[in-house]
Amino acid sequence: MRQPSLLDRVLVEIDQSLRTVHARPPVTERPNPARQVTATAALDDTERRLSGRLMRVNHAGEIAAQGLYRGQALTARLEGIRAQMQRAADEENDHLDWCEQRLQQLDSHKSRLNPVWYWGSFSLGALAGLAGDRWSLGFVKETEDQVEQHLKQHLGRLPANDLPSLAIVKQMQEDERHHGDQALAAGGKRLPWPIRRLAMPLAASIMTTLSARI
């Protein structure tokens, strides 16, 4: 069987980015957690707009996660690590679909900067992979830890009666913790302090601020 050329791999990644950013996510592996929620009082306009902004940020984060894992899988050195990255991307696809469904229900929109978030994260993931699998896994661990804290903040900010969004975010938080633990168990290396405490929080702050507005 012919091995994919560099051009083949580049075209595959371009196709994947278009599917992720512009198409409806494929059928997910797990049911939407919001399906189990009992109906509650309707959101007023202020609550709906707040939930829309927060879920748009979460959706943008999942777009970034797809790019990150695809980039890391592309440059991973060990086949087992590549498979782990691809598996994590599949599971994150559930989150992408759940957030998109909720945005539609809230009559809100996805971030118009999603192509930027995807390719920016793809580039970071590819660079992390080139640095070595242990560094790449460490990057996953630190990313998931920060995302988990970010989702915790959203659980405190979402309207108390927006039970569907709360159910989605709670499941996302649990999954992110699991992905981080997996990366650490697979040999993830702790990132240097400037990356963990300066560069990554700054990048996350820019993304969350802009995606909430645009």
Describe the protein in words:
By secondary structure, the protein is mainly alpha-helical. 76% of the residues lie in helices and 0% in strands. The chain has a single domain, classed as Ferritin, CATH 1.20.1260.10. The chain is globular.
Q: List segments where confidence is low: pLDDT < 50 over at least 5 consecutive residues.
A: none
**CATH level-1 class:** Mainly Alpha
CATH architecture: Up-down Bundle
Most strands sheet: none
Order of helices and strands: HHHHHHH
Give the overall pLDDT as a whole number.
84
The CATH H-level superfamily is: Ferritin, core subunit, four-helix bundle
Over all CA atoms, what is the radius of gyration? 17 Å
What is the straight-line distance between the termini?
A: 45 Å
Question: Number of helical runs?
Answer: 7
Large-scale geometry: globular
Count of β-strands:
0
Oligomer: single chain
CATH fold assignment? Ferritin
Topology summary:
Blueprint: H1 6-22, H2 45-75, H3 79-105, H4 114-131, H5 133-157, H6 163-185, H7 193-213
Which features does this protein show?
single chain, 214 residues, mainly alpha, Ferritin, 7 helices
Summarize, please.
The protein has 214 residues and is mostly helical.
